[in-house]
User: What shape does this take?
Amino acid sequence: MNRVAANGIHLNVLDRGHGAPILFVHGFPLNHTMWHAQLDALSDQFRVIAPDLRGFGHSSVMQGTVSMERFADDLNGLIDALGVNETVTLCGLSMGGYIALAFARKFGHRLRSLILCDTRAVGDSPEAMAGRKKLAAGVLEHGPELVATAMLPKLFAVETTDRRPEVVAAVRSMVTSSHPHGIAAALQGMAQRPDSSELLSQIEVPVLLIVGREDKISTVDEMRTMSQAIKRSEFVEIPAAGHMAPMENPESVNAAMRKFLSTRTW
Ligand code: MLT
Assistant: This one.
């Protein structure tokens, strides 16, 4: 792991392999280790770059609000700091997907392609916004266990809950080891993120959309609709997986990514 100065902070980042770069952006409130299976599989053919976002893992923690745009600025600074001069494939899960869309809006010229996993283009409803603000206040008072209790029941397919306790335990451990200020700042940032639905038709690069068939947060129907709005899109449903598809069914996710990455005529 490297500790890299970027955009005024320090980011903890795994940077491994050679070839076209793929930047992996984790979901909320996790860290780069959620991509373990993809990093292992794809680093034989690609340069895989997986940071802990600001406020998570071993990266610098901020109080207040971290907007999706600020996270995108951090990623832009990170690839500069790592000397990445060519365009990148940006792969984001859920909040990582919100950040990928913010990156596409601001730094579209740096993209080779996008992989959007279990994510949404719409902004928060007023109710969702209020829920995030309440959770942000709660986590600062009571700690991250509160977030684990609220989120974990929604994250997995039945098969994962019944037969893959190690996946559930790994996610729980990422959530409960996250810093309360990092969690609260990302919640505030997600609450104020703009609706990106209009952006989808303006994305010019190829986009792979991946969704766990049992995802209750970003559903199959919602992600299929997103893919229909994007000019050059591919849509893949992952069986036996929910919101954490890359961890729940890594074989299918890796196969979909490899096919997308290797069959494109860039
Ligand atoms: C995530 O997995 O990053 C979260 O579910 C995103 C969200 O809370 O909207």
